[in-house]
Amino acid sequence: MEIEEKEKENLKNNANNINNNLNTSHDGELHSEREYCKKILDVKYNPYEGFHPATEKDDKGKKVFIDAKKICRIFGTDVKTKVLNDVNLKIYEKEFVMILGPSGCGKTTLMNILGLLDTPSSGKLYINNKLTSNMAESERAVFRRKIGGFIFQQFHLINTLTALQNVELPMVLDNLETETRTQRAMRLLNLVGLKGKEHNRPSQLSGGQQQRVAIARALSNKPKILFADEPTGNLDSVSGKQVMKLIKELHDQGITVIMVTHDSTLLKYATKVIKMKDGLIEELLQRDE
């Protein structure tokens, strides 16, 4: 009986010790178990941590790549919809810019205009100090093929071509010799982790693998700037992380990146963030040094 009473006393002491541990937080304040859990759960994730409102001082000494002045884009004839409204923006060389906002805010339209896939209804756009409205369509095509690389949410691979042939396609349009373009395409597929998949068609590849083929294709003509429209939008979380890691590595090698996303968790890769709402730039943020 005496042993049993001692065991009961030990259990009681242990329970008191556990209760005391639950009721004391790391900062020494007393909380009930429920209050302590609530305190942990109430800590909110801030995707903009590490960023500050951009100022002219942030861009001092940087070279302007793209300069957009009072860009408007209106769709429709009878019923007109203004998708972009007097947007002013400068993109500097070697930046990783993310355009963030809800669906319909104009972020993809803005990226398409910056990448010469679309033209503004009004305003002026300069690329390397050249006014784009003065460019002939042939000049715009050269920019899209040689200066800019494009990655889309839907991949846009040609189903009847192999991975290798899809990557080679821009180089075919640029009249590169067969041996040169094949060697470069093989090297790029190896770079994006698809060695051994060169002769697979898109239907034989996973979504993440197809997006990596699209990235290799975007790099085939050695672009100076990469435009990416929701590149992880159709991917699972694992493939999405792999694609973002690859894009970040390309940026680290000196490629300017402009990326559209609605996913604020991806902002950790950016050096600059453009927050959009209703066709306007709501806020421009710069990563802290």
TrEMBL record:
One of its GO terms (molecular function) is ATP hydrolysis activity. Residues 1-11 have a biased composition (Basic and acidic residues). Residues 12-23 have a biased composition (Low complexity). Residues 1-30 are annotated as: Disordered. The keyword ATP-binding applies. SUPFAM superfamilies: P-loop containing nucleoside triphosphate hydrolases. Residues 66-289 form the ABC transporter domain. CDD domains: ABC_MJ0796_LolCDE_FtsE. Transmembrane segments: none annotated. Gene3D superfamilies: P-loop containing nucleotide triphosphate hydrolases. Keywords: ATP-binding, Nucleotide-binding, Transport. GO terms for cellular component: membrane protein complex. This is ABC transporter related protein. It comes from Methanococcus voltae (strain ATCC BAA-1334 / A3).
